[in-house]
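pasting Methyltransferase type 11 for the record, 260 residues
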Amino acid sequence: MINDSIRKYYTDYYRNALGLPGYECNVQNRLYEDDNSKQLIVSKLSFICGQIPSGGKVLIVGGGTGAELVAFHSLGFEAWMIEPDKEAVKVARQKSVVNNIADKYVIDGVAELIPFKNSYFDLIWSFTVLEHVQDYDLSLREICRVMRPGAWGCLFFPDYRCIYESHYKMYMPLFLPKWVAGLFLRLKGRDPKFFLKNTNKINHQKFIRTAMDLPIDTFRHYQPVGIEWKSGRTLMMSLAYFMKMYLDIEYSLSYFIKRK
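structre below
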């Protein structure tokens, strides 16, 4: 039953909203999202090993269909997720039942108004979410507010100065005005509604400008350059490699933040 719900949700997302060719593969991969999320979480937390107390309180900002919620609970943390997409919340609640996670840990809400008291969490986790919030300045302030002194955050989001759109999984001129990127999607036969309505074009510079006004230390985690980048098999890949290596612009940004 849960797999049917996951298939339905992500078929609507990948096929209907994004129009991905071969969307079936993406949907199939989502059936393993709990395990995949756990691997990513373990990998990232290894960089701050020993900094998060055993059984610590975790807030997942933008919990989606609950993969990270299941993963954190399986690792022994007390984790909550907040998610505004009501259909995703329904799937997450189904997962919580299957995995014996109390319903209170799945919250229908937004990052701009986190329903917790100040200094409550030991860890904040947000994976490709801040590019979708209505107000990322307010969202970051709220994230900071609910972090206890010494708490850590793991934040991941695209840099919308780059030339690769990770949702549509295609090269496009994201550094140009939003309407130009929308027109580009139209010319490629893709529906731009999701991009125009649900992205705010956050980037490294905008994030740092906001972070500088908050009581946090910010650490950027650079991803290693893989063989696929070095090979430069296509013109667009070569351009993306140049932007990453010489302009410090890459499509996927990764940060650790620590509350002062």
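The chain has one domain: 32-160+199-259.
The mean pLDDT is 94.
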